[in-house]
Amino acid sequence: MAALVYLIPAALLLGGFGLVCFLWALRTRQFEDLDGAAWRALHDDHDDRLKDDRD
Amino acid sequence: MTLHAQIDDPGLDAGCCTFGSLAAPAARSAAAGADPRAYAVVGADGIARLDAVVETLDCPSCVPSIEGTLARLDGVIGARVNAGQRRIHLEWDPERVDVERIVATLGGLGHRIAPYDAARLGGGEVDEVGQGLLRALAVAGFAFANVMLVSVAVWAGLAQDMGPGTRAFLHWVSALIAMPAIVYAGRPFFRSALGALRAGTSNMDVPIAIGVTLATAMSLFETTRNGEHVYFDAALGLLFFLLIGRFLDRSLRGRAFAAAQNLLALRAVSALVIGADGTTEVRAIEAVRPGDRVAVATGETVPVDGRVAAGRSEVDASLVTGESLPQAVAPGDLVHAGTVNLAAPIEVETAAAGSQTLLAEIAAMMDRAGQAKARYVRLADRISQIYAPVIHALALAAFAGWMTLGSADWRASLMIAVAVLIVTCPCALGLAVPAVQVGAVGRLLKRGAYVKSGDALERLARIDTVVFDKTGTLTLGRPRLDGIDGGAANALALAATLARRSTHPLSRAIAAAAGDGAAAEGVHEEPGLGLEALVDGERVRLGRGDWVGGAAPALPHAGTEIWLRRGEAPAVRFRFVDAPRPDAAEVVATLKDRGLRVILLSGDREPVVAALADQLGIGERQGECLPSGKIAVLQRLAAEGRRVAMVGDGLNDAPALAAAFVSLSPSTAADVSQTAADVVFSGDALAPVLECWEVARKADALVRQNVALALGYNLIAVPLAIAGLVTPLIAAVVMSASSLAVTGNALRVQRGR
Is the CB of A55 less than 8 angstroms away from the CB of B169? Predict the structure, then answer.
């Protein structure tokens, strides 16, 4: 039972990290255009110069 | 429908891919949209930025190629397409590349853009609420999952030999996780409930807010008293499932909002103003004043209301009259903003611009009429108006009953009352309606019909009458060559050589009928009269009967006609009809079979209207109907207690579209009509109208089933709760089971008939 004292906070921490990542992704507007993101991943034109995403 | 059959289905657009339209159907816009130069903004960092609607983006597979090609242009810093909203955000260095080159590059890919003023549209508004809901959902989900983990341990411990010390510890852990989460995730509901209570009414959120607050408070109290049962998981579960439903509903409206804003963007134009010294200047429409002289080139939209100051031309006034045949204009004639200048450049002296134009006034009228629709109370809210008082009374009765008759102390009685509130909380109810509606709208989107909101579906399911407009709605709005009277066999070929040089709808119809071929040289177009050319030394004229000359007395004809005359030979008559949509007769027959009353209202001449009505089997018809006449008919039907679906397209239909119980509009309709309509359908077939109605009815049936399921589960649980048998375990199981059942049932809307 003593193990619970550190296991529960550990579980919360890990879960909390996942939550923070999700909220960050939301804030950087990655969920706004799911259709476009899906198709953008399929594009394989290697001649594109690398551009910074200005979002 | 098998996958094979779906791909072969002619309903899907065969554009750049077989997926058809995943976003809103393409709105018809003017031949040339706004001038990008007026909307590109150079920031303090020297970078030019532009936001635009990509009108031709039907399928997101074009997105990578658009972005990739633009990125390769020297000077372009960024090009980001939002496929869902069909918008593009461009950034470039104005020293190295200009906006015309960017537009030309896009044109080379087959895409057309219409810029808009991002600040004016304020596109972030709906997103904020949706984002807020998603954040609350994430927090509620995280907390729900973790508290549930702890709760399962506690429930197992209750069955076995968990000591009270451990149990208390676990309860405190639950409390610490749950409290901040409930406060954060519950805000949408608390806000809405407070708003309703302050207004003196009640909605779905009032019982939810009460239930969650009471459950949390009691659980906290029990935790401090080392009690046996706490309901943190139930409260969080409630919030989680309800937020899902709320988010689904919001995202449905979000799409429609973006589409409506896109339509607004397509209307925003810039104007080429001619100064007193003859110089021209591109100005945004807001900067044009009455008295300014505006030049309108061939093919451009007229940006202002005013009188023609110079030039003779023809305008496509379908925006105002709904008829696609051009009207001739000469100096002194009135033209309206939104009409398209077809034949020759003209100069217009501005009488009204921007929000003073006829177009803007009608749009404002739409808004006001639309408020009436907003008063339609949704099914979920109507249920909660009865439901909420009942369950509050039950909870109160349980509390009082146990205190007096059951002789329990106030703590235990309150626990039972809280249990009653929790199990009867409309969790599944909050999910029942949006789950079905999102599925139904998604299914209709694949068939080319764009439903703007969930309550449009609810209203569509209730109609008993359908009123159709004629031109552009029951017909395709494009004239087709019907027959040729007189003349030699090569009359069509000769007419086609002239017709191929003109963009007039009747010329295009002749060219289409004749097929490919040569076009004559030196064809001169007389606006409002016809085409003239010299062919083999003879003067050939194609146009109005009186201008062409030598015409035989005209037989009465339900349609349009033009004449061809070669030299001094007798004139040959070309008859046109506006063909009905290929499946119009079928659709009308099916609607009548299913018990709907079908009416045809049109502004066109009586004989034409009667001919089409007979052809399609519509008994009730009325021609020569002004917009006010259409509204009068709708009001009469409404007074009879009928619920009317109006299907129409022209601006003259827009007031009626806003006044009807529910309205549909083809995607070729005027922008304002599309904004006023509840459903916009694309393609040449009329079948989407029928499908929308059938899917709406199926969705309505499923919603009622879901509501019954949700209420049914609750009804089983209420006696258990009153009997004091509902532990947090049972509450959680009941809630989750009913939510899953409701969602599973909602998926049935996606399947076949």
Answer: no
Q: Which letter, b or e, does each residue of B650-671 get, where b requires 16 or more Cβ atoms within 10 Å of its Cβ?
A: bbbbbbbbbbbbbbbbbbbbbb
All residues of chain A having their beta carbon less than 8 Å from the beta carbon of residue B72 are 47-49
Of A33, A38, A51, which has the smallest distance from its Cβ to B78's Cβ? A51
Q: Which of B387, B494, B463, B301 is nearest to B710 (CA)?
A: B387
- Going by their DSSP bridges, the two strands B346-352 and B662-666 should be labelled as unpaired
Percent of chain B having pLDDT more than 70? 83
CA B495, B500, B506, B509 torsion-angle sign: positive
Task: State the smallest CA–CA distance between residue A28 and chain B in angstroms.
Answer: 11
Pairing mode of beta strands B538-543, B530-535:
antiparallel
* CB contact B80 to A (< 8 Å): yes
Tens of pLDDT, residue by residue over B353-407, are 777 777 676 666 666 555 555 556 677 777 777 887 888 888 888 888 888 887 7
Looking at the DSSP bridge assignments, the partners of residue B597 are: B465
Q: 559-588 in B: which are within 8 Å (CB) of A? A: none
Predicted TM-score of the model (pTM):
0.69
CA distance B685 to B24: 17
Q: Which residue from B555, B619, B605, B584 is spatially nearest to B690, judged by alpha carbons?
A: B584
- DSSP per position, B92-151: E-TTT--HHHHHHHHHHTT--EEE--HHHHTTTHHHHHHHHHHHHHHHHHHHHHHHHHHH
Question: Which of A15, A31, A53 shows the shortest C-beta gap to B142?
Answer: A15
DSSP B529: T
**B409: its two tokens:** 């102390």
CA angle B249, B748, B425 (to 5 degrees): 50
Name which of B492, B494, B484 is nearest B566 in CA terms: B494
The yes-or-no verdict on residue B555 having pLDDT over 60 is no
Contacts with B, A 23-52, CB within 8 Å: 23, 26, 31-36, 38-40, 42-43, 45, 47-49, 51-52
Residue A2, chain B, CB below 8 Å: the answer is no
Is residue B502 within 8 A of residue B531, CB to CB? The reply is yes
Contact pairs from chain A to chain B, CB under 8 Å: 83
* ipTM of this predicted structure: 0.79
Q: What is the pLDDT of residue B267?
A: 59
Test the A interface: residue of B19, B54, B65, B146 with most A CBs within 10 Å? B146
List, by residue number, the catalytic residues of B.
469
Task: State the amino acid at position B259 in one-letter form.
Answer: A
